[in-house]
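Exercise: predict the fold of this chain.
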Amino acid sequence: MNWIRQRLESFSERTAFIEDSSDFSYADLINRIDKLKERVSKEVQTAPSIIGFSFARLSDNLAAILAIAELKQVAHPISTELAKAERQEQLSIASTQWIIATTSLERTPNELPHKLVNQLTPKNDAGLILFSSGTSGAPKAMLHDLNALLGRYESVRPRNDR
């Protein structure tokens, strides 16, 4: 997924986000991605590992997804609005092994990822786990091949009117 980084780098100082009345450039986003990659790669040595995160700011969540994707791991975004019991249930269902905290990376008791996650390994692809309540109301995990999901946008050319 080098094409995503190359595209972000080509926009460099252009505004990527406006959050809390502050502008953040694409260079700022790349900096956040690199810092998260450094933190995660120090601890997580095996792929695929499932890495959860829950940040209040959208830009931090996007940086986490892209950092985890560049490391060929599996991203598990967790809503900040989940009750503690629901959060624990999601972590268990997804077999999330690591949680990115504000200043550290925390290990969970989950040892092995679900066998479906291992299907990403031969392709050397990153993954994304999302949850849905489905029709029963019980949480259901959906595993996506993140390379395939984002690869659809590789040929989309940037608009010139922005």
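Check your answer against the key: The mean pLDDT is 90.
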